Automatic annotation (TrEMBL):
Keyword Cell division in record: no
Domain Cytochrome c: 232-322
Similarity-based family: Belongs to the cytochrome c oxidase subunit 2 family.
Organism: Paraburkholderia lycopersici
Lineage: Bacteria, Pseudomonadati, Pseudomonadota, Betaproteobacteria, Burkholderiales
Pfam families, per the entry: COX2, Cytochrom_C
Protein name from the UniProt record: Cytochrome aa3 subunit 2
Membrane topology according to the record: Multi-pass membrane protein
Length: 322
């Protein structure tokens, strides 16, 4: 689905009223512009036609004043019409805000999303009390409202998944709330929509809606620690990761327990990396490690120089993080 389709279509009840409002406001703005343009054209035309070309100056002044009064009446009528329409738009917006403020029933799941420059930390708390994290990818069950608690770790960001809900800001020191619901399985792109620095445009995420049974299987798989490295190359790659990357990243089941960067326990199971900047392929993972500052300048991920042998070993281990 194209980005335009994401914006113009809704896939859940939190987005449907917003989408109707989008179309209504677009139609209203176009109509108001057309009406104002027509009224202005009519006023100018009548003013010009009211001025005699070959008569005495007093008569011309009288006609000029009459034309001006007519033009003022037309502008007044246009202003009144616009005011009524804009008041109607305000009422419509307030009704939509009330409609999407709360889900129709209690959310079955709460997800905490924390915005960073320039990626998203996604935290789940399971019914058993277990906490697990992923990054830039939010999985939800279809047909169920999901509460999203929004935080920011640095500056003001804005969370927006157009097909599923409206925009909500993530503000440092404050927890804002939103809810999502998908009517059917699918993958929908979201984006930070509050300018937050040089890589604002590359701060995307995906919402993956799955049938409840598939979501339960995904959640169970995510709770497992990383699989043990079996091959010699993967074991060497794990050691290199522990030496050079564990200060920032966490991989559950290993020595890596950093808290400043995305949890990579199940990295290879994700569709995208670098907050939606690259497809998640073995080649792109290594390219990101070696050239992060070329791909996403000023991000907190540094370029890490690797020899061909080191890159091969690290790639072999990253491939195991399913």
């Amino acid at each position: 689905m194209t980005p335009l389709a994401y914006f113009l279509h809704s896939a859940g009840p939190a987005a449907a009223p917003v989408r109707v409002l989008d179309w209504a406001l677009a139609a209203l703005c176009i109509a108001v512009c057309i009406v104002i343009a027509l009224l202005l054209f009519m006023a100018l035309r009548r003013r010009r036609d009211a001025v005699p070309q070959d008569e005495a100056m007093p008569q011309a002044n009288v006609a000029d004043e009459e034309g001006e009064r007519t033009a003022n009446r037309i502008v007044a009528v246009g202003t009144a019409i616009s005011s009524v329409l804009l008041l109607g738009a305000l009422v419509g917006m307030l009704r939509v805000l009330a409609a999407v403020a709360e889900p129709p029933r209690a959310p079955s799941l709460t997800v905490t999303v924390t915005a960073y420059d320039w990626w998203w930390r996604v935290t789940y708390r399971t019914p058993g009390g277990t906490t697990l994290e992923t990054a830039n990818e939010i999985h939800i069950p279809t047909g169920e409202p999901v509460r999203v608690d929004l935080k920011s770790a640095d500056v003001v960001h804005a969370f927006w998944v157009p097909a599923l809900a409206g925009k909500t800001q993530a503000i440092p020191g404050q927890v804002n709330h939103q809810w999502l619901q998908a009517d059917h399985p699918g993958v929908w792109r979201g984006q930070c929509t509050q300018f937050c620095g040089p890589q604002h445009a590359h701060m995307a995420m995906e919402v993956v809606a799955q049938a409840p049974a598939d979501f339960a299987r995904w959640l169970a798989a995510q709770q497992k620690p990383a699989a043990s490295a079996q091959s010699g190359a993967a074991q060497r790659g794990e050691q290199r990761f522990a030496a050079r990357c564990a200060g920032c990243h966490t991989v559950r089941g290993t020595q890596a327990a950093g808290e400043q960067a995305p949890d990579l326990t199940h990295l290879a199971s994700r569709r995208l990396i670098a907050a939606g900047t690259l497809a998640n392929t073995p080649a792109n993972r290594l390219d990101w490690v070696a050239h992060a500052q070329q791909i996403k300048p000023e991000s907190l991920m540094p370029d890490i120089a690797l020899t061909p042998a080191e890159a091969s070993d690290l790639g072999a281990w990253l491939d195991t993080l399913q």
